[in-house]
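Input sequence (137 aa), recorded before submission:
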Amino acid sequence: MEKKLKREIAALEDLFTVVERFCSQQRVEDSVIFTMKLAGEELFTNLVRHNEGGGDHILMELKRGDRSLVLVLTDYDVKPYDIMQTGPVDVTAPLAERSPGGLGLHLVKNVVDKLTYEYTDGTMKITAVKGLEGKHV
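Predicted structure, token format:
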């Protein structure tokens, strides 16, 4: 399933609706739906707020494999920014000692089973994969 989402935070409602509808049709467990909505929200928000450049939309794709659910967000006409290069977040440090940023990506990296970044000729693609029914990919 594919959906073009407007490059605006308000499009999160569309993202949630697509994830819920697709997952309902595919009979995906509620815990996986929650995880993919959370990952989708964080990744989409980062693309909208932090990517330099960008067209008027971001393409969202949802696919189901035998053992996993795959969410792909593709952003066009942007400069490269490899989210996989963000450093670890020390969640045990006192708040006063923490640097702002990075906590959302840290969360996504810990709730999905696989997160990848690709960049080619101005196009950024982020893929989040979550195993189904307790299966890891």
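Checked by second reader. The mean pLDDT is 86.
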